[in-house]
Every structure is written in C-alpha cells, then in structure tokens.
Write a structure and sequence with these properties.
single chain; 448 residues; Heat Shock Protein 90; Rossmann fold; five-stranded mixed beta sheet; 11 helices; HisK_dim/P_sf
C-alpha cells in the first residue's frame, strides 16, 4: 500500500482497492445468484412433483371407480345370464308339457272323427265330418308351428346333420304336392342332378315343404319349379313360381310371424296362417343354410336355399311298410286320457281289431293275473299318471311273453331323450296327434 507523505493512501492505491472490492463483490453476487437459482430449480421440481402426484392420484381414483363399475356391471351381466338360462330351462319344461297338454284333446278329436268317417253316414254328415277334420288339422298345424318356433328361438332344436340325396327328397316333395298343383291347373316340375348335400333331413324337408306350399298357394296360372344345381362350391335349391309376386317393401316382412301381404291375401286361395316363411327362416338359420328371396310383383318369386355339398353318399332308405289286415288282432292300449282311449278303441274296432284299454300298469297287471288273453301288439302312451311311463307296461308284458311283443309308443313330446329311450326298448315312436292312416299302416306292418 502506497502512503502519501501525509500518511494517507494515494489515489492509485485506493483505485486498486476499489477494483479489488468490486471483483470480490461481483464474485459474491454471482455465488448468491447461483445459490438462488439452485434453490428456485429445486422448488420448481418440488412443485412439479406435487402436481404430478395429484394428477396420478386423480387418475388412480378414476381408474378405481371404473374398475368398481366394471365389476358391478359384470355381476349384473352374470346375474342376467343366469336369469336367462333359468328362463330358458323353464321354457323348455313348459314346451314339453304344452306339447302334450295342448295336442292331447286334438288327438282325441281327430281319432273320433276318423272313427266316425269309417261308419256309413249320409252325404251331409260326411261333409260336416270333413269340415271338422280340416278345422282340427288347422288347429294342430298352428299349435305345432308355434311350438316349433318357440323351440327354435330357445335353441332346443339341434340339427342332426347327415348326407341327404337331393333327387329322392325333391321327387318325394313333388309327388306329395302334385295333386294340389293339378287341382289349380299348375305345372310342378323338378330339375335335380345326382347331388348329395349335408343337412338335417327332417328340417330340410320342412323348409322345402313350406316353400313349395307357399308357391302353389299364391300362384294361379303357370307353375312352380323346384330346381337344384351346383354353385360356388355348394348347392343352391331354387323354388320358383309364376305367382303374384311380393312388393319390395314387403320382402323382409314376409319372414315375420302372421304376415300376409296385400297381393297374397287377395288370392282366391284359402289364406294360410302366415307362419310358413317365419319358421323357414328360423330353420335355415339353425342349419346355417343361407336363404334369399327375389321377386317381381305380377311375375313371380324365387326363394333360394344354399346347401353344403356332401362327399359322403346318403344311406339307403328302409323299405316302406307293407299293409296287411288287422282282423282279429288283439291290441292292448294303455292311455291315461279317457277321451283319447275311447277314440282309439273305436278306431281300432272299426278296423276289425279286438281292443283292451287300460289307464296304467296296475290295470294291465290285474287283467293278466285274472286270466285275460295276451295281446298281439301294444299301443302305449309314454306319459302316464303319477310320473309312470308306458314303457314299463311293455317291459312287464314282454317279461311274461314267450314270443316277441311289438309295441308302439305315442307322445306329443319331441325330446331326443324320449326318442332314445323308446328306440332302446325296441318300440316304434308315433308323435301325437296321431294320423290314423299312419297308425294303421304301422300296426299292420308290425303284425305282418
């Protein structure tokens, strides 16, 4: 430090000290600023962390809420599924009971009318009997069709897929509808090469029967063609008519229950129930067979059914029953419905058979132990009172017989379990309402 002679620092010395102090001050200020920046960054990071934690907490709460709602929704869906399955099981049981209870009185009435028709009647009475028979047939068709629709909707019907030889099926259909077509002056033609398809024979037959019946019903001039041909790796079956046709706005509606279009209801033909195409659509869906419709009003309609080609040949059909006489044959009938039993007895007696009727196994056992003549054939109702089964009667009588004892089992229940049990018992199954001609043919065949 340079001193002035008077003992004071010189200007140069003071200037250097001031510059040094300024440098120290600048360094200190820089350090302070850096410290402040570091504290600010840490604070900002702290604030950001708090904000992110809040967002994560909010999102977690939202996700938790969604999961709880999803769990409640899944529980509700599971409960609804269980309720639907329970309702479906109840519907199945109802259908089985309805099939029997609704058709039982129709069965008794038809048997009685058939027995009446075998008697010598004046023309007027025979005409009335015919009208009653047609009315009963309509009632039967309506009940059975509604039951079929309910079963298809409930998923009860399970197709039994097998090879089906189309020429035989189409020829049989044409033969059965030929009288109706000729009565209206219509041509009914079949065009089908040798083709085998994979389908359920009974369901496919029902589909084509309804289509051909509709075509004939709503055609007044020209005819109906039933044709099959190969198309795109499969088979298409066309039912084409020259009838009144269907308006564009009605082409989807014709597949609804009880719908009959304006042009169709104006036909002179007796109107149908409006259920034929509805059940056709459901059966085709159950079989996974595509169904399409094309139509021109005033020119006609073509309904096309797509079928898968089968590489396996169809099995040969068994020979048809050969009719023989029933005279003198002893028929034992077990039927818990009194009116049905009486009608069955009158019908069989008109065919010159000897008839014994019983309500249950106890009555049959009592008669046999009292020395009643053994029967030649059995006609047994499957569902008897108190949960009993007609097959128990067959087992009892066959156990006492030294020769084979044929049996026919009748029921309005179309379940596969009953079919399997009847087949295992070596009996023939006939569904109610019983067709007298079918019953007579089967009886005489089994007695031959």
């Amino acid at each position: 430090m340079t001193l002035h002679p008077s003992g004071l620092e010189t200007d140069e010395s003071l200037r250097r000290r001031i510059e040094k102090l300024e440098r120290i001050n600048a360094a200190l200020m820089s350090h302070v600023e850096r410290s402040m920046d570091q504290r600010g960054s840490a604070y900002s990071l702290f604030q950001t962390a708090i904000m992110l934690e809040g967002r994560v907490r909010t999102r977690t709460e939202e996700l938790t809420g969604l999961m709880h709602r999803l769990e409640r929704s899944n529980e509700a869906l599971a409960a609804a599924k269980e309720e639907a399955e329970t309702a479906n099981r109840s519907k199945t049981r109802f259908l089985a009971a309805a099939s029997h209870d609704l058709l039982q009185p129709v069965n008794a009435a038809r048997l009685s009318i058939s027995a009446l028709d075998d008697l010598p009647l004046p023309p007027e009475a025979r005409t009335i009997a015919g009208q009653v028979e047609r009315g009963l047939q309509t009632i039967e068709d309506l009940i059975k069709t509604l039951l079929d629709i309910s079963k298809l909707d409930a998923g009860i019907v399970r197709p039994q897929l097998q090879p089906v030889f189309l020429p035989d099926l189409l020829a049989e259909l044409a033969e059965s509808f030929k009288p109706f077509a000729e009565r209206k002056g219509l041509r009914l033609a079949v065009r089908c090469p040798d083709l085998t398809v994979t389908s359920d024979l009974m369901l496919l037959q029902r589909i084509l029967q309804n289509l051909v019946s509709n075509a004939i019903r709503y055609t007044t001039t020209g005819g109906v063609v039933l044709a099959a041909r190969r198309r795109a790796g499969g088979i298409r079956v066309d039912v084409t008519d020259t009838g009144c046709g269907i308006a564009a706005e009605e082409r989807d509606l014709v597949f609804e229950e009880f719908f009959r279009g304006g042009a169709r209801t104006g036909s002179a033909e007796e109107p149908g129930l409006g259920l034929g195409l509805s059940i056709v659509r459901r059966m085709a869906q159950a079989l996974d067979h595509p169904l399409t419709l094309a139509s021109r009003p005033g020119h006609g309609t073509r309904v096309t059914l797509g079928l898968p080609l089968s590489l396996i040949p169809a099995a040969t059909a068994p020979p048809a029953p050969v009719a023989t006489r029933l005279s003198g044959a002893h028929v034992l009938v077990v039927e818990n419905d009194a009116s049905t039993a009486d009608a069955m007895a009158r019908l069989l007696q008109n065919w010159d058979a000897r008839v014994s009727t019983f309500r249950d196994l106890a009555g049959v056992r009592g008669a046999i132990e009292a020395g009643a003549a053994p029967p030649d054939i059995l006609v047994l109702d499957y569902h008897l009172d108190d949960g009993a089964c007609g097959l128990d009667v067959a087992a009892y009588l066959r156990g006492r017989s030294a020769r084979p004892l044929p049996a026919i089992v009748t029921t309005a229940d179309h379940s596969e379990a009953i079919e399997a049990r009847v087949a295992a018992a070596g009996a023939e199954l006939v569904h109610k309402p019983i067709k007298p001609a079918q019953l007579r043919s089967l009886l005489t065949y089994m007695l031959a």
